[in-house]
């Protein structure tokens, strides 16, 4: 009978609320403005530990709210130093949050600003690709919380617009990428600028054994928080694979978008040039697409991302610059145009969908050349991805695709094609003279050697007597 059946653990334990952590009323008010009352598992585990001052290594599936897991307790800890003084000296940098990408830095800054909006605390974001002057003005006015990418942070340190001597808390968001993708020298320089006594927090969706070893060199007796199996993918994301030929990949992406009626999807490419080419291909197919990658200026990247969030762009073709930390509300689908070389990046890519408990689809295209990458991914996630047939997809032949695209680019101008490009020989008028067999030229009478030499011997030019050309007598 229902009345006598034992309740599950989730029903037996009362739901944890943010107010149970002892957060200030100003923070709770900001959370209420955002519509948040209950923490996610990583937040419920991390917030009390950070508030007690411990170093933390936090691992959780992407999309579970790690940003609030460290930003909320940081704001709570810094409230003891909050003041409304206009003096910059009263607002030193007390917390530093490092991120690997500009987009993630901007997103974290938005979250910190939203959570601290009812407090006197100041925050700012600094990253490359934009003018330094506004960032310099904000730093000189005084801020307690700085969100930054390592390169631009060191630029400000070199120009003496940033002082980290009073920093109490260091956060490395997406720590595996920070340590594993060439940031280690910059991180070491930054750490040397910080006080020896500080609190260190590292959060990421994936931690390999090598990264854990490196992270432990920066942390002091860290508390490890893992709310799910390491490198796991979310259960609410449906993962499928479609095997296609390399030359039909772009058409397959367009087919999937049309057949599924997708109006908001991120497509991941391994290369910048591949992202640009796929974006142009989709535009020619009538899809509202835009590319975002490292060769784009920061203004172009932010504009493309904002257009995607607003819906004026339906498909965002991106490199892994967009795979880390970007939070697109209710993103229904992501497509892997290329399987990533690094299997951990697969976890981050598909983590752009199915966020905050919502369902999502992760579609991947693969070819025979990517068999090794697929095996590494399935080994990492400990899951075999379903292989399906792409129904209704009839790829055009290469000659048809070239003909169509060249016709679109050339408009009404008719272009002649060589046999190697179009598959059909070009008909041209041929002069019959070129079809005749070779006939040697008729022999001419030979000239006497002396006469021939006389013709070829150079003749001396006559020189005026004034210049020394006096004739011999």
Automatic annotation (TrEMBL):
Domain Helicase ATP-binding: 47-225
InterPro entries referenced in this protein's UniProt entry, alphabetically: DEAD/DEAH_box_helicase_dom, DEAD/DEAH_RhlB, DEAD_box_RNA_helicase, Helicase_ATP-bd, Helicase_C-like, P-loop_NTPase, RNA-helicase_DEAD-box_CS, RNA_helicase_DEAD_Q_motif
Pfam families from the UniProt entry: DEAD (PF00270), Helicase_C (PF00271)
Transmembrane segments: none
SUPFAM superfamilies, per database record: P-loop containing nucleoside triphosphate hydrolases (SSF52540)
Domain DEAD-box RNA helicase Q: 16-44
Gene3D superfamilies associated with the record: P-loop containing nucleotide triphosphate hydrolases
Keyword list, A-Z: ATP-binding, Helicase, Hydrolase, Nucleotide-binding
PROSITE patterns, sorted: DEAD_ATP_HELICASE (PS00039), HELICASE_ATP_BIND_1 (PS51192), HELICASE_CTER (PS51194), Q_MOTIF (PS51195)
Region Disordered, annotated ranges: 396-473
Helicase C-terminal domain ranges (all copies): 236-396
Motif Q motif, residue range(s) on this chain: 16-44
Domain of life: Bacteria
Biased composition (Basic and acidic residues): 397-431
Stated family: Belongs to the DEAD box helicase family.
Protein name from the UniProt record: ATP-dependent RNA helicase RhlE
Native species: Noviherbaspirillum aridicola
Organism lineage: Bacteria, Pseudomonadati, Pseudomonadota, Betaproteobacteria, Burkholderiales
Gene: rhlE
């Amino acid at each position: 009978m229902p009345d006598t059946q034992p309740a599950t653990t989730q029903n037996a334990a009362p739901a944890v609320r943010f107010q149970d952590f002892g957060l200030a009323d100003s923070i709770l008010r900001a959370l209420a403005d955002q519509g948040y009352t209950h923490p996610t598992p990583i937040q419920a585990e991390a917030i009390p530990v950070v508030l007690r001052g411990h170093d933390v290594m936090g691992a959780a599936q992407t999309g579970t709210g790690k940003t609030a897991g460290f930003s909320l307790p940081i704001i709570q800890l810094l409230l003891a130093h909050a003041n409304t003084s206009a003096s910059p000296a009263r607002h030193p940098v007390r917390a530093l949050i490092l991120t690997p990408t500009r987009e993630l830095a901007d997103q974290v800054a938005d979250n910190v600003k939203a959570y601290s909006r009812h407090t006197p605390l100041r925050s700012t974001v600094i990253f490359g690709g934009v003018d330094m002057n506004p960032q310099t003005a904000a730093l000189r006015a005084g801020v307690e919380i700085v969100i930054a990418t390592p390169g631009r942070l060191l630029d400000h340190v070199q120009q003496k617009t940033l002082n980290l001597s009073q920093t109490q808390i260091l956060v490395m968001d997406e720590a595996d990428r920070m340590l594993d993708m060439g940031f280690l020298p910059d991180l070491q320089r930054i750490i040397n600028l910080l006080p020896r006594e500080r609190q260190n927090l590292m959060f990421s969706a994936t931690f390999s054994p090598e990264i854990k070893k490196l992270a432990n060199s920066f942390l002091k007796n860290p508390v490890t928080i893992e709310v799910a199996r390491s490198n796991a993918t979310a259960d609410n994301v449906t993962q499928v694979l479609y095997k296609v030929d390399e030359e039909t990949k772009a058409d397959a992406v367009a087919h999937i978008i049309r057949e599924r009626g997708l109006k908001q999807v991120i497509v991941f490419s391994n290369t910048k040039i591949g992202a640009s080419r796929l974006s142009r291909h989709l535009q020619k197919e009538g899809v509202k697409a835009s590319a975002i990658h490292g060769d784009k200026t920061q203004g172009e990247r932010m504009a493309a991302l904002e257009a995607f969030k607003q819906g004026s762009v339906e498909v965002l073709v991106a490199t892994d610059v967009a795979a880390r930390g970007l939070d697109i509300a209710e993103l229904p689908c992501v497509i892997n145009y290329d399987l990533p070389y690094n299997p951990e990046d697969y976890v981050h890519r598909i983590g752009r969908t199915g966020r905050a408990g919502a369902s999502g689809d992760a579609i991947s295209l693969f070819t025979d050349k990517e068999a090794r990458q697929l095996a590494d991914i399935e080994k990492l996630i400990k899951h075999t991805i379903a292989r399906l047939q792409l129904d209704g997809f009839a790829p055009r032949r290469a000659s048809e695709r070239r003909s169509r695209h060249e016709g679109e680019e050339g408009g009404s101008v008719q272009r002649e094609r060589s046999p190697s490009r179009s598959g059909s020989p070009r008909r041209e008028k041929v002069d019959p003279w070129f079809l005749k067999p070779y006939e040697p030229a008729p022999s001419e009478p030979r000239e006497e050697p002396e006469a021939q030499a006389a013709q070829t011997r150079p003749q001396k030019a006559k020189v005026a007597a004034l210049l020394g050309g006096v004739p011999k007598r």
